[in-house]
Amino acid sequence: NAGVTQTPKFQVLKTGQSMTLQCAQDMNHNSMYWYRQDPGMGLRLIYYSASEGTTDKGEVPNGYNVSRLNKREFSLRLESAAPSQTSVYFCASSDDRGPSRGYTFGSGTRLTVV
Amino acid sequence: QQQVKQSPQSLIVQKGGIPIINCAYENTAFDYFPWYQQFPGKGPALLIAIRPDVSEKKEGRFTISFNKSAKQFSLHIMDSQPGDSATYFCAATLPYGQNFVFGPGTRLSVLP
Q1: CB within 8 Å: B44 and A103
Q2: B82 falls in which pLDDT band (50, 70, 90)?
Q3: Cβ B98–A40 below 8 Å, yes or no?
Q4: Are B61 and B3 in contact (CB under 8 A)?
Q5: Tell me: the pLDDT tens digits for B33-66?
Q6: Which of B46, B99, B104 sits opposite A45 (nearest CB)?
Q7: Are B64 and B33 within 8 A, CB to CB?
Q8: What's phi and psi for A11, nearest 5 deg?
Q9: Rounded to 5 degrees, what are φ and ψ at A85?
Q10: A7: number of CA atoms within 13 Å, CB side?
């Protein structure tokens, strides 16, 4: 099925551990995004990539790094996990056509840092 | 100025009722206002969207009303069904912008 695929779906980390969240899309979209979702705070942008080879910081980039490996894949890395990074992480890609632009989201990764 | 405010935080209606979710923004440069629907355990999905040159847009049972002068827009769900129970997010973006600013979300429960 076409869409955005995220792995893993669930993860528990100890404080200080590192991990990479993987995201891949098969819709030939140029732009990809990483958001975190916390109760009462909606979706906050961590990093985005407007095209292959480019990445930019969003609203809450501290503690994260990203890699746009190719047009399909955009990974998010936590180098030293902290309890404040406990959240649900969503990857999204977008069709850059102006009149109907919108995101396609993955199903999310629920991360708990203990 | 990049914020989008959304209310109420949660909403409970009976089947057949018309829940209304309201959003407000400050940045008059925003030019595209989508609504996303999210079911538990799933990612948000685009539901309906509007541009500020239109005062109303309908798609099925979902209607967006837009008040440019008040910088407000709202989502109405006609003849609501239990299957509409979800969290709804409003959002906004700038011209040629790729990043959406999201409201904090409204959790809707439609009772059978």
Answers
A1: yes
A2: very high
A3: no
A4: no
A5: 999 999 998 999 999 999 989 999 999 999 999 9
A6: B99
A7: yes
A8: -155, 135
A9: -95, 5
A10: 3
Q: Looking at the complex, does the CB of residue B9 fall below 8 Å from at least one CB of chain A? A: yes
Do B32 and A101 count as a contact with CB atoms less than 8 A apart? yes
Query: Which residues of A fall within a CB distance of 8 Å from B104?
Result: 40-42
B62 to A32, B36, B57: CA distances (angstroms): 28, 12, 8
> Which of the two residues, B2 and B73, has the higher pLDDT score?
B73
Contacts with A44 from chain B: Cβ below 8 Å: 102
Longest Cα–Cα distance in chain B: 42
Which band of pLDDT confidence, cut at 50, 70 and 90, is reported for residue A101? low
Q: A30: nearest CA in chain B?
A: B98
Buried-exposed string A34-58: b where 16+ CB fall within 10 A, e elsewhere: bbbbeeeebbbbbbbbbeeeebeeb
- Chain B residue numbers with beta carbons less than 8 Å from the beta carbon of A106 are 43
User: How confident is the model over A10-57, as pLDDT tens digits?
Assistant: 999 999 999 999 999 999 888 899 999 998 788 999 999 988 889 999
pLDDT value for A98: 46
Residue of chain A nearest B103, judged by CA positions: A42
**Residue among A42, A103, A101, A95 at smallest CA distance from B51:** A101
Strands A109-113 and A10-13: parallel
Interchain pair B49, A92: CB under 8 A: no
Label residue B98 by pLDDT band (50, 70, 90): low
